Amino acid sequence: VTGGVDDLVKSWNWRDDFLDYRATLKGHQLGVVSVTLNAAGTVAASSSLDSTIKLWDLDSSKQIKSIDAGPVDCWTVAFSPDGQYIGSGSHSGKINLFGIESGKLEQSLDTRGKFIMSIAYSPDGHYIACGGIDGIVCIFDLATGKLLHTLEGHAMPIRSLTFSPDSQLLTTCSDDTSIKIYDVQHANLIGTLSGHGSYVLCVDFCPDNTHFATSSSDRKVKVWDAGMRRCVHTFSEHSDQVWGVAYNENGSKLVSVSDDRNIIIYECPI
Questions:
Q1: Residue 135: closest CA among 111, 164, 110, 163
Q2: pLDDT grade for 61, boundaries at 50, 70 and 90
Q3: C-alpha to C-alpha distance for 109 and 88, rounded to whole angstroms
Q4: How far is residue 134 CA from its own chain's centroid?
Q5: What are the angstrom distances between the C-alpha of 73 and each of 153, 189, 266?
Q6: Average pLDDT across the chain, whole number
Q7: What is the spatial distance between Cα 73 and Cα 88, in angstroms, rounded to a whole number?
Q8: Which residues are within 8 A (CB) of 6 and not within 5 positions of it... i.e. 6 or more apart?
Q9: Are 121 and 85 in contact (CB under 8 A)?
Q10: Would you give the DSSP letter of residue 248?
């Protein structure tokens, strides 16, 4: 599922080495900021500059629900692992959790910080993390709603962050061109990785729990080994900045999207 500044969400069938266009999901009035899928792959959520979060049934390509997130108050969206909630960052420095069934705001987690640009749930459902425009990462305990850790590793906005499949590591990427890996439980910085020549826009962890991929304004997609803390492959296929990168469900392929309006699929080199 992809979203663009043309206000449209599009769904695709990904079979082997081919992407088949499936449907265009219309409803947003302004550019789409973020798209995500639930764990089952049956429902998509999209957030837009029009301040709404929309839920889509991918089988029927119909809109299920539209959630009003309030004036300029939704950005990156993420499904909870159990599919019951959709989380969104906000300009006010709060993580807003909306109920899928109710379509209403159920809980707010306050970072007391600035505009939240990125959020991620841990796969085990215990934590939610967010990255701010001020370069600060906050990790909350979902059971208690308490702020567990504040990580001040980055100097510039954090565009994306992701937990490892075992929920033990958190990887963050920033406009400062660096990628950082943290031990979630103890909030220790394990490593800082450099290699991109510009803003790092997206990060996604591989299902193998060892590798992760990043994309950047330098037009490159890189694959990293988290344990060895080094880049193991660089793809240079795009001709403009690469806004998103994601693994398929078994980690054998990567897909990326770019301002060059192309979607590219890669065989993973590892």
A1: 111
A2: very high
A3: 10
A4: 18
A5: 25, 30, 34
A6: 94
A7: 8
A8: 31
A9: no
A10: -
Angstrom distances, CA of residue 186 to CA of 6, 147, 148, 192, 270: 42, 13, 10, 17, 29
Q: Which residues of 141-155 are buried (b: 16+ CB within 10 A; e: fewer)?
A: ebeeeeeebebebbe
In this predicted model, what pLDDT tens digit does every residue of 199-258 receive, in sequence order? Answer: 999 999 999 999 999 999 999 999 999 999 999 999 999 999 999 999 999 999 999 999
* The pLDDT of residue 72: 62
Structure tokens at 50: 């029009």
d(CA 226, CA 183): 12
Give the integer Cα–Cα distance in Å for 158 and 173.
6
DSSP-assigned letter for residue 147:
E
- The single residue listed with the structure tokens 């997130």 is 69
Other beta carbons less than 10 A from residue 14's beta carbon:
15
Question: Which tokens is 151 given?
Answer: 């990580």
Beta strands in 71-136 (DSSP E): 77-79, 85-88, 94-99, 105-110, 116-121, 127-132
pLDDT for 153 equals: 86
